[in-house]
């Protein structure tokens, strides 16, 4: 590509469809990260030729609001249960939009290596007050940032089988477990959330030091 020599962009098929995302992120290598763990993940993305889907705060706010719009006609919801930690941010946005004031958490720690979901531990259960709301959780909204393999969603759905399960993003494997979501990405896409990213210096396209 003229004027593009030396560039080795991430395989960003999905990003190129989203102009506002493709411009700032398409040439990031590795992804802007604050810690070594994420840098390793970025390296894995490169090595496995997977797609990266970095999400800015603005984009996440827009997508979480879009989720609230979709949920608005499906309530009313008497309570929200967010799955920590990723569900905390979208739940904050959705509860503001839908004016839900009873918010609970189910705290799950999953121990996994990059893509492979390992074991999960429930560190805090859903409050009994929320469990009593409707039969099997009817009228309760469960929120997470994304569903990937569906393991986390399956675990929480068993706790409240009749609750409405919503995520901002979804991947095909976990999609059947979600009632409402906004954007689907392919299974081989890794979503980078804004709270996991940071600003970093970008070398000039020419390859010089800037
Ligand atoms: O569909 P699955 O394969 O279960 O993956 C989806 C889950 O993985 C991530 O959470 P993670 O367990 O990494 O922890 P966190 O929310 O505390 O970051 C994400 O926030 C979902 O909860
Ligand atoms: O694509 C993802 N991004 C961030 N966290 C995740 N946990 C499972 N899949 C993902
Ligand atoms: Mg999570």
What class do helices, strands and sheet pairing give? alpha/beta
| Overall pLDDT metric | 83
Global geometry? globular
CA radius of gyration is 19 Å
CATH fold-type name of the domain at 73-183 = Rossmann fold
Helix percentage range:
25-40%
| Strand arrangement across the biggest beta sheet | 4-3-2-5-6-7
Biggest beta sheet attributes = 6 strands, mixed
Reading off the top of the CATH hierarchy, the class of the domain at 73-183 is best stated as Alpha Beta
Low-confidence stretches: 1-33
Strand fraction: 15-25%
First and last CA, distance:
21 Å
Hetero ligands:
1-O-pyrophosphono-5-O-phosphono-alpha-D-ribofuranose, hypoxanthine, magnesium ion
Q: What is the string of helix and strand elements?
A: HHHEHEHEEHEHEEE
CATH architecture grouping of the domain at 73-183: 3-Layer(aba) Sandwich
* Tally of helical runs: 7
Q: What is the chains' assembly state?
A: single chain
Task: Write down how many β-strands occur, each being a DSSP E stretch of 2 or more residues.
Answer: 8
Binding site for GMP: 148-152, 190-191
Organism: Faunimonas pinastri
Keywords: Cell membrane, Glycosyltransferase, Magnesium, Membrane, Metal-binding, Purine salvage, Transferase
Subunit structure: Homotetramer.
What can you tell me about this protein's structure?
With 210 residues, the protein is of the alpha/beta class. It has a domain at 73-183: Rossmann fold (3-Layer(aba) Sandwich), CATH 3.40.50. It is 30% helix and 24% strand. The chain has helices spanning 13-16, 19-25, 36-47, 57-72, 88-98, 128-131, 151-159; strands spanning 51-54, 79-84, 103-113, 116-124, 140-147, 164-170, 183-184, 189-192. Strands 4-3-2-5-6-7 form a six-stranded mixed beta sheet, sandwiched between helices. Strands 1-8 form a two-stranded parallel ribbon. Strand 2, helix 5 (88-98) and strand 3 form a beta-alpha-beta unit. The protein starts with 12 loop residues before the first helix and ends in an 18-residue tail after the last strand. Residues 83-86, 110, 117, 144-153, 174 line the site of 1-O-pyrophosphono-5-O-phosphono-alpha-D-ribofuranose (PRP).
């Amino acid at each position: 590509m003229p004027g593009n020599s030396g560039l080795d962009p991430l395989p960003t098929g999905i990003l190129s469809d989203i102009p506002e995302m493709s411009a700032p992120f398409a040439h990031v290598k590795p992804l802007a990260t604050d810690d070594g763990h994420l840098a390793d993940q970025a390296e894995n993305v490169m090595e496995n030729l997977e797609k990266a889907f970095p999400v800015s705060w603005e984009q996440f706010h827009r997508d979480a609001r879009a989720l609230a719009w979709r949920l608005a006609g499906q309530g009313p919801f008497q309570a929200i249960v967010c799955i920590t930690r990723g569900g905390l941010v979208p739940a904050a946005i959705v509860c503001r939009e839908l004016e839900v004031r009873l918010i609970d958490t189910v705290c799950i720690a999953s121990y996994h290596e990059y893509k492979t979901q390992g074991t999960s531990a429930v560190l805090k259960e859903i409050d009994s007050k929320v469990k009593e709301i409707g039969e099997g959780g009817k009228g309760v909204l469960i929120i997470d940032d994304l569903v990937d393999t569906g393991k986390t969603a399956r675990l929480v759905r068993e706790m409240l089988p009749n609750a409405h399960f919503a995520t901002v993003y979804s991947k095909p494997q976990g999609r059947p477990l979600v009632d409402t979501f906004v954007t689907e990405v392919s299974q081989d896409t890794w979503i980078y959330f804004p709270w996991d990213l940071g600003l970093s210096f970008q070398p000039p396209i020419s390859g010089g030091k800037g």
